[in-house]
Protein backbone atom coordinates (compact mmCIF):
# COMPACT_ATOMS: atom_id res chain seq x y z
CA UNK A 1 0.00 0.00 0.00
CA UNK A 2 2.80 2.40 0.93
CA UNK A 3 4.63 1.67 -2.32
CA UNK A 4 1.46 2.33 -4.32
CA UNK A 5 0.90 5.67 -2.59
CA UNK A 6 4.51 6.60 -3.19
CA UNK A 7 4.13 5.81 -6.88
CA UNK A 8 0.94 7.85 -7.20
CA UNK A 9 2.56 10.80 -5.45
CA UNK A 10 5.60 10.56 -7.68
CA UNK A 11 3.49 10.55 -10.85
CA UNK A 12 1.53 13.56 -9.59
CA UNK A 13 4.76 15.48 -8.97
CA UNK A 14 6.06 14.63 -12.41
CA UNK A 15 2.86 15.86 -14.01
CA UNK A 16 2.99 19.12 -12.08
CA UNK A 17 6.66 19.72 -12.81
CA UNK A 18 6.21 18.89 -16.46
CA UNK A 19 9.08 16.41 -16.39
CA UNK A 20 7.48 14.40 -19.12
CA UNK A 21 8.40 11.98 -21.85
CA UNK A 22 5.25 12.85 -23.85
CA UNK A 23 3.77 16.06 -25.19
CA UNK A 24 0.68 16.05 -22.93
CA UNK A 25 2.47 15.68 -19.62
CA UNK A 26 1.72 11.97 -19.16
CA UNK A 27 4.38 9.52 -18.06
CA UNK A 28 4.14 6.35 -20.10
CA UNK A 29 2.91 3.19 -18.40
CA UNK A 30 6.13 1.48 -19.44
CA UNK A 31 8.27 4.06 -17.63
CA UNK A 32 6.03 3.97 -14.56
CA UNK A 33 6.26 0.19 -14.38
CA UNK A 34 10.05 0.29 -14.67
CA UNK A 35 10.34 2.85 -11.89
CA UNK A 36 8.03 0.77 -9.73
CA UNK A 37 10.12 -2.35 -10.33
CA UNK A 38 13.35 -0.51 -9.54
CA UNK A 39 11.99 0.93 -6.31
CA UNK A 40 10.74 -2.47 -5.15
CA UNK A 41 14.41 -3.48 -4.94
CA UNK A 42 15.46 -0.30 -3.09
CA UNK A 43 16.51 1.69 -1.27
CA UNK A 44 19.62 2.71 -3.20
CA UNK A 45 22.73 4.78 -2.76
CA UNK A 46 22.72 7.51 -5.41
CA UNK A 47 26.01 8.15 -7.23
CA UNK A 48 26.11 11.54 -8.96
CA UNK A 49 28.98 12.35 -11.34
CA UNK A 50 29.46 15.32 -13.71
CA UNK A 51 30.94 13.88 -16.93
CA UNK A 52 31.73 10.73 -18.92
CA UNK A 53 35.49 10.76 -18.29
CA UNK A 54 34.79 10.85 -14.55
CA UNK A 55 32.05 8.20 -14.71
CA UNK A 56 33.69 5.66 -17.04
CA UNK A 57 36.39 4.48 -14.58
CA UNK A 58 33.58 3.63 -12.17
CA UNK A 59 31.50 1.77 -14.76
CA UNK A 60 34.61 -0.10 -15.96
CA UNK A 61 35.57 -1.12 -12.45
CA UNK A 62 35.14 -4.77 -11.54
CA UNK A 63 33.36 -3.49 -8.41
CA UNK A 64 30.37 -2.32 -10.47
CA UNK A 65 27.86 -4.90 -11.65
CA UNK A 66 24.95 -3.69 -13.75
CA UNK A 67 21.49 -5.06 -13.01
CA UNK A 68 20.83 -7.91 -15.44
CA UNK A 69 17.08 -7.36 -15.79
CA UNK A 70 16.98 -3.55 -15.86
CA UNK A 71 20.49 -2.06 -16.24
CA UNK A 72 19.29 1.49 -16.83
CA UNK A 73 16.31 3.81 -17.16
CA UNK A 74 16.32 6.80 -19.52
CA UNK A 75 14.25 9.73 -18.35
CA UNK A 76 14.19 13.46 -19.13
CA UNK A 77 17.50 13.33 -20.99
CA UNK A 78 19.25 11.43 -18.21
CA UNK A 79 20.33 7.81 -18.00
CA UNK A 80 19.99 6.28 -14.55
CA UNK A 81 22.21 3.21 -14.34
CA UNK A 82 21.06 0.50 -11.94
CA UNK A 83 23.38 -2.01 -10.33
CA UNK A 84 25.65 -2.88 -7.43
CA UNK A 85 28.86 -1.22 -6.34
CA UNK A 86 30.96 -3.03 -3.75
CA UNK A 87 27.82 -5.20 -3.36
CA UNK A 88 25.72 -2.15 -2.42
CA UNK A 89 22.63 -1.25 -4.48
CA UNK A 90 23.33 1.94 -6.42
CA UNK A 91 21.81 4.19 -9.05
CA UNK A 92 24.38 6.18 -11.03
CA UNK A 93 23.51 9.34 -12.96
CA UNK A 94 25.69 11.66 -15.01
CA UNK A 95 24.69 15.31 -14.63
CA UNK A 96 26.64 17.20 -17.25
CA UNK A 97 28.42 20.50 -16.66
CA UNK A 98 27.17 23.29 -14.37
CA UNK A 99 25.06 23.96 -11.31
CA UNK A 100 21.76 23.78 -13.22
CA UNK A 101 22.40 20.34 -14.69
CA UNK A 102 23.74 19.00 -11.39
CA UNK A 103 20.72 20.30 -9.49
CA UNK A 104 18.17 18.92 -11.96
CA UNK A 105 19.81 15.49 -12.10
CA UNK A 106 20.08 15.24 -8.32
CA UNK A 107 16.45 16.29 -7.88
CA UNK A 108 15.24 13.78 -10.47
CA UNK A 109 17.25 11.03 -8.80
CA UNK A 110 15.49 11.66 -5.51
CA UNK A 111 11.99 12.18 -6.95
CA UNK A 112 11.99 9.09 -9.16
CA UNK A 113 13.78 6.61 -6.96
CA UNK A 114 13.96 5.40 -3.39
CA UNK A 115 17.36 6.87 -2.48
CA UNK A 116 18.72 6.79 1.06
CA UNK A 117 21.94 8.70 0.45
CA UNK A 118 23.99 10.45 -2.25
CA UNK A 119 27.69 10.29 -3.10
CA UNK A 120 28.90 12.95 -5.51
CA UNK A 121 32.40 12.78 -6.95
CA UNK A 122 34.58 14.23 -9.69
CA UNK A 123 37.60 16.43 -10.28
CA UNK A 124 38.17 20.01 -9.10
CA UNK A 125 40.57 22.92 -9.11
CA UNK A 126 42.77 23.41 -6.08
CA UNK A 127 42.92 26.65 -4.07
CA UNK A 128 45.18 25.32 -1.30
CA UNK A 129 48.93 25.64 -1.98
CA UNK A 130 49.61 23.02 0.72
CA UNK A 131 47.99 20.33 -1.42
CA UNK A 132 48.90 19.07 -4.87
CA UNK A 133 47.33 17.73 -8.03
CA UNK A 134 46.10 14.16 -7.55
CA UNK A 135 45.13 14.63 -3.90
CA UNK A 136 41.52 13.71 -3.12
CA UNK A 137 39.64 16.16 -0.90
CA UNK A 138 36.51 15.56 1.15
CA UNK A 139 35.10 18.90 2.42
CA UNK A 140 32.83 19.16 5.44
CA UNK A 141 30.93 22.15 4.02
CA UNK A 142 29.93 23.36 0.56
CA UNK A 143 28.77 26.77 -0.68
CA UNK A 144 27.59 28.26 -3.95
CA UNK A 145 29.65 31.40 -4.56
CA UNK A 146 27.97 32.43 -7.80
CA UNK A 147 24.96 34.24 -6.32
CA UNK A 148 25.87 37.94 -6.01
CA UNK A 149 24.36 41.32 -5.27
CA UNK A 150 26.46 43.69 -7.37
CA UNK A 151 26.71 47.02 -5.60
CA UNK A 152 26.45 50.31 -7.47
CA UNK A 153 29.58 52.42 -7.90
CA UNK A 154 30.03 54.85 -5.04
CA UNK A 155 28.40 52.67 -2.38
CA UNK A 156 30.52 50.84 0.16
CA UNK A 157 30.36 48.25 2.95
CA UNK A 158 28.28 50.55 5.18
CA UNK A 159 25.62 51.16 2.52
CA UNK A 160 22.53 48.96 2.44
CA UNK A 161 22.15 46.74 -0.61
CA UNK A 162 19.14 46.98 -2.90
CA UNK A 163 16.25 44.92 -1.45
CA UNK A 164 18.29 44.12 1.65
CA UNK A 165 15.56 45.57 3.85
CA UNK A 166 13.09 43.04 2.37
CA UNK A 167 15.32 40.15 3.42
CA UNK A 168 16.23 39.24 -0.14
CA UNK A 169 19.93 40.06 0.22
CA UNK A 170 22.48 40.33 2.99
CA UNK A 171 25.97 41.66 3.74
CA UNK A 172 26.69 38.88 6.23
CA UNK A 173 28.71 36.62 3.91
CA UNK A 174 31.10 39.26 2.56
CA UNK A 175 32.16 40.71 -0.76
CA UNK A 176 34.87 41.01 -3.36
CA UNK A 177 36.20 44.50 -4.03
CA UNK A 178 37.41 44.72 -7.60
CA UNK A 179 39.72 47.68 -7.04
CA UNK A 180 41.79 45.43 -4.76
CA UNK A 181 42.87 43.61 -7.92
CA UNK A 182 43.88 46.67 -9.94
CA UNK A 183 47.53 47.26 -10.79
CA UNK A 184 48.97 49.35 -7.98
CA UNK A 185 50.44 52.80 -8.56
CA UNK A 186 53.93 53.71 -7.42
CA UNK A 187 52.57 55.18 -4.18
CA UNK A 188 50.77 51.96 -3.34
CA UNK A 189 47.19 53.10 -3.91
CA UNK A 190 44.67 51.35 -6.12
CA UNK A 191 42.61 52.94 -8.85
CA UNK A 192 38.81 53.01 -8.19
CA UNK A 193 37.02 50.38 -10.26
CA UNK A 194 33.56 50.96 -11.75
CA UNK A 195 32.74 47.32 -10.97
CA UNK A 196 32.90 48.30 -7.27
CA UNK A 197 31.86 45.44 -4.92
CA UNK A 198 29.98 42.18 -5.41
CA UNK A 199 28.41 40.67 -2.26
CA UNK A 200 28.12 36.90 -1.94
CA UNK A 201 24.63 35.67 -1.13
CA UNK A 202 23.16 32.55 0.49
CA UNK A 203 20.70 30.47 -1.51
CA UNK A 204 16.97 30.50 -0.86
CA UNK A 205 15.91 27.00 0.14
CA UNK A 206 12.54 25.32 0.61
CA UNK A 207 13.10 22.14 2.65
CA UNK A 208 10.64 19.30 2.11
CA UNK A 209 9.78 19.30 5.80
CA UNK A 210 9.38 23.06 5.97
CA UNK A 211 6.31 25.18 5.30
CA UNK A 212 5.68 25.47 1.53
CA UNK A 213 6.66 28.85 0.06
CA UNK A 214 8.29 29.91 3.33
CA UNK A 215 11.90 30.35 2.39
CA UNK A 216 14.98 29.58 4.39
CA UNK A 217 18.57 30.48 3.54
CA UNK A 218 21.73 28.42 3.29
CA UNK A 219 25.31 29.32 2.43
CA UNK A 220 27.56 26.70 4.05
CA UNK A 221 25.83 23.34 3.69
CA UNK A 222 27.29 20.50 5.80
CA UNK A 223 27.74 16.99 4.47
CA UNK A 224 26.33 14.09 6.45
CA UNK A 225 28.13 13.68 9.77
CA UNK A 226 28.18 9.87 9.63
CA UNK A 227 29.53 9.89 6.08
CA UNK A 228 32.18 12.47 6.95
CA UNK A 229 33.31 10.46 9.98
CA UNK A 230 34.44 7.70 7.61
CA UNK A 231 36.99 10.05 6.06
CA UNK A 232 39.64 9.07 8.59
CA UNK A 233 39.38 5.46 7.45
CA UNK A 234 40.19 6.60 3.91
CA UNK A 235 43.49 8.18 4.86
CA UNK A 236 46.44 6.12 3.71
CA UNK A 237 44.60 4.73 0.68
CA UNK A 238 47.07 4.10 -2.13
CA UNK A 239 46.41 6.41 -5.07
CA UNK A 240 47.91 6.81 -8.52
CA UNK A 241 50.68 9.37 -9.11
CA UNK A 242 51.74 9.01 -12.76
CA UNK A 243 50.27 9.63 -16.21
CA UNK A 244 52.40 7.67 -18.66
CA UNK A 245 55.92 8.88 -17.82
CA UNK A 246 54.81 12.09 -16.09
CA UNK A 247 54.73 11.66 -12.32
CA UNK A 248 53.74 13.93 -9.46
CA UNK A 249 56.29 15.11 -6.87
CA UNK A 250 54.77 12.88 -4.18
CA UNK A 251 52.15 10.17 -3.90
CA UNK A 252 48.64 11.71 -3.71
CA UNK A 253 46.68 11.40 -0.49
CA UNK A 254 43.10 11.60 0.79
CA UNK A 255 42.47 14.74 2.85
CA UNK A 256 39.49 15.88 4.88
CA UNK A 257 39.18 19.66 4.44
CA UNK A 258 36.87 22.27 5.84
CA UNK A 259 35.29 23.88 2.79
CA UNK A 260 34.65 23.51 -0.93
CA UNK A 261 32.92 25.97 -3.25
CA UNK A 262 31.09 25.83 -6.57
CA UNK A 263 29.91 28.32 -9.19
CA UNK A 264 29.27 28.35 -12.93
CA UNK A 265 32.86 29.47 -13.46
CA UNK A 266 35.95 27.53 -14.47
CA UNK A 267 38.60 29.21 -12.32
CA UNK A 268 41.97 29.49 -14.06
CA UNK A 269 43.03 32.72 -12.39
CA UNK A 270 45.58 32.91 -9.59
CA UNK A 271 44.25 36.16 -8.09
CA UNK A 272 40.72 34.82 -7.68
CA UNK A 273 42.08 31.48 -6.48
CA UNK A 274 44.02 33.24 -3.71
CA UNK A 275 40.98 35.34 -2.82
CA UNK A 276 38.75 32.26 -2.47
CA UNK A 277 41.31 30.62 -0.21
CA UNK A 278 41.84 33.67 2.02
CA UNK A 279 38.16 34.69 2.12
CA UNK A 280 36.45 31.32 2.48
CA UNK A 281 39.25 28.89 3.38
CA UNK A 282 38.22 26.90 0.30
CA UNK A 283 40.17 23.96 -1.09
CA UNK A 284 38.36 22.31 -4.04
CA UNK A 285 36.72 24.64 -6.59
CA UNK A 286 34.22 23.17 -9.03
CA UNK A 287 30.97 23.75 -10.94
CA UNK A 288 28.51 21.20 -9.53
CA UNK A 289 29.04 20.08 -5.93
CA UNK A 290 27.19 22.90 -4.17
CA UNK A 291 24.13 22.23 -6.35
CA UNK A 292 24.13 18.59 -5.25
CA UNK A 293 24.59 19.74 -1.65
CA UNK A 294 21.71 22.22 -1.80
CA UNK A 295 19.28 19.73 -3.35
CA UNK A 296 20.18 17.07 -0.77
CA UNK A 297 19.86 19.68 1.97
CA UNK A 298 16.36 20.59 0.81
CA UNK A 299 15.37 16.93 0.41
CA UNK A 300 16.88 16.01 3.82
CA UNK A 301 19.01 13.33 2.15
CA UNK A 302 22.43 12.35 3.57
CA UNK A 303 25.25 13.19 1.16
CA UNK A 304 28.99 13.52 0.80
CA UNK A 305 31.23 14.98 -1.92
CA UNK A 306 34.58 13.52 -3.00
CA UNK A 307 36.68 15.69 -5.32
CA UNK A 308 40.15 14.94 -6.69
CA UNK A 309 42.37 17.91 -7.53
CA UNK A 310 43.22 18.04 -11.23
CA UNK A 311 44.72 21.53 -11.55
CA UNK A 312 45.85 24.53 -9.52
CA UNK A 313 42.98 26.85 -10.59
CA UNK A 314 45.40 29.29 -12.19
CA UNK A 315 48.11 28.93 -9.56
CA UNK A 316 50.47 26.86 -11.69
CA UNK A 317 52.85 27.73 -14.49
CA UNK A 318 51.37 29.58 -17.46
CA UNK A 319 53.44 27.31 -19.68
CA UNK A 320 51.49 24.18 -18.71
CA UNK A 321 47.92 23.04 -18.56
CA UNK A 322 47.68 20.74 -15.57
CA UNK A 323 44.05 19.81 -16.13
CA UNK A 324 44.76 18.41 -19.61
CA UNK A 325 47.62 16.33 -18.23
CA UNK A 326 46.23 15.11 -14.94
CA UNK A 327 42.43 15.05 -15.34
CA UNK A 328 42.37 11.31 -16.07
CA UNK A 329 44.61 10.56 -13.08
CA UNK A 330 42.48 12.72 -10.79
CA UNK A 331 39.29 11.06 -12.05
CA UNK A 332 40.70 7.59 -11.34
CA UNK A 333 41.86 8.65 -7.88
CA UNK A 334 38.39 9.98 -7.12
CA UNK A 335 36.83 6.68 -8.22
CA UNK A 336 39.28 4.70 -6.08
CA UNK A 337 38.22 6.72 -3.02
CA UNK A 338 34.52 6.34 -3.87
CA UNK A 339 34.90 2.56 -4.12
CA UNK A 340 36.60 2.42 -0.74
CA UNK A 341 33.98 4.72 0.79
CA UNK A 342 31.09 2.59 -0.49
CA UNK A 343 32.81 -0.52 0.81
CA UNK A 344 33.03 1.10 4.25
CA UNK A 345 29.32 1.91 4.10
CA UNK A 346 28.56 -1.69 3.21
CA UNK A 347 30.54 -2.95 6.18
TrEMBL record:
Q: Which InterPro entries match?
A: Nucleoside_phosphorylase_d, Nucleoside_phosphorylase_sf
Nucleoside phosphorylase domain: residues covered: 45-343
Which organism is this entry from?
Pyrus ussuriensis x Pyrus communis
Give a yes or no for keyword Signal in this entry.
yes
Cross-referenced Gene3D superfamilies, in alphabetical order?
A: Nucleoside phosphorylase domain
Q: Which residues form a coiled coil?
A: none
Q: What is this protein called?
A: Bark storage protein A
- What keyword terms does UniProt attach to this protein? Signal
- Can the keyword Signal be found in this entry's annotation? yes
Report the record's Gene Ontology biological process terms. nucleoside metabolic process
> Source organism's superkingdom?
Eukaryota
Molecular function as annotated in GO: catalytic activity
Signal sequence span is 1-25
